[in-house]
Amino acid sequence: MSETIFVTGGTGLTGANVCRQLIERGDHVRALARGGADSDPLVAMGVEIVEGDITDAESVLAASKGCDAAIHTAALLGGASQNIADFRAVNTEGTRHVLDAGEAHGMRRVVALSTGTFFDTSGGLSLEDAPVSEHPDDDPYTVTKLAAFLECVKRAEAGQDVVTGHPGAIYGPSPVPSRALSWTSFNGVLVGALRGKLSKYLSFPVTWVLGNDVAWGSIAALDHGVAGERYLLDGRPQDVISIAACCNIACEAAGIDHRVEDIPVTDDPELVAEFGPTLVAIAAKAKAHPSKPRAIKTRTHARLGYDPTALHEGLARLVPWLRELGKIS
Question: Which CATH architecture has domain 4-176+209-235+294-309?
Answer without folding.
Answer: 3-Layer(aba) Sandwich (3.40)
